[in-house]
C-alpha cells in the first residue's frame, strides 16, 4: 500500500496498552519486536507501530524508520523462518502490514492477529517455553500454568487446523462421493447428492473459513485431510501416519488371518474413512 497522510490526533494513542505497542526502528527490527509479536498472538492480537519513540516523560514522538526496505525484508525473512518464530500469522497481501507518512516520516503498522488455539503458544527461537503474553504494561513470558493451558487447548483443536497448501485435489473424491451418499440417506436429504463436492465439504467442515484475514477464503482442515485425503497427501503432512488392523481367529493365536494396513499394495490409498469402511 502506498504511504498516505493522516493527522497525528487521529493516529497516536496516548499510551501503549494491551493492543498497541510503539517501537523505534531505524535500520532494522528492534530486538523486542518478536517478543511483542508472540505476546499479541498469544493474547488478543494487536498492532506494532514502528517509527515511534517514547521519551522519559511517557510522551510519544514520530521519528520514522530510516530504511523501510531493509526493515520489511528482515521482517518477512524472519517471519518465514520457523527457527525464529513458530507461527506465520501474517501474509504478504497488504492487509496486515501498512505503511504511512506522518510529519514527513515513514512509519509502519503491523497488525498481529490472535493465533488460533492450535497455533498457540506462538514461541521464539525454537523453544516452546520462549513464549510471551500481553499485559496492560507490556510483554511477559508465559508462566508454567499458562504454557500448560496453551498446549492442552492446542491439542483439543488440532482437527480444525487449517492447511494453506492443500486443495480438493488432495482428497480421494471417490470416498467423498460415498460419504455424500451415506449422508444424504441418513439425513433424509436426497438433494445433498446434487451438491457440488466443494460446497458439501464446506458444509461438513472439511473446508473452513480462515478468519485471520478479511478475504474469508476457505482452506482444508487437518481433520478433513486425515478423513478423506489421498495417502501421499496425508503423509506429506504427517510422515508417520499409519493405519493398521489385524484380525486373529481367537485371542490365543499368534498369527493373524487378515490384515489391513496403509501403504500395503492391496490398500494403496487408505484414509480414515476408507479404513473404517473396510474393517467395519
Q: Which key terms come to mind for this protein?
A:
280 residues; alpha+beta; Methyltransferase, Cobalt-precorrin-4 Transmethylase, Domain 2; 4-stranded mixed sheet; 3-stranded antiparallel sheet; 9 helices; 14 strands
Integer-rounded radius of gyration: 25 Å
Proportion in β-strands: 15-25%
Helical content band: 25-40%
- The residue-averaged pLDDT reads 84
* Low-pLDDT residue intervals, each spanning 5 or more residues: 1-10
**CATH superfamily label of the largest domain:** Schlafen, AAA domain
The number of domains is 2
State the strand order across the main sheet. Answer: 1-2-6-5
Number-wise, the strands total: 14
| Helix-strand makeup class | alpha+beta
For this entry, what is the oligomeric state of its chains? Answer: single chain
How is the CATH topology of the largest domain named? Methyltransferase, Cobalt-precorrin-4 Transmethylase, Domain 2
Q: What is the CATH architecture term of the largest domain?
A: 2-Layer Sandwich
**CATH class wording of the largest domain:** Alpha Beta
List the helices and strands in order.
Answer: HEHEEEHEEEEEHEHHEEHHEEH
Largest sheet: 4 strands, mixed
Shape: elongated
For the termini, the CA-CA separation is 56 Å
Number of helices: 9
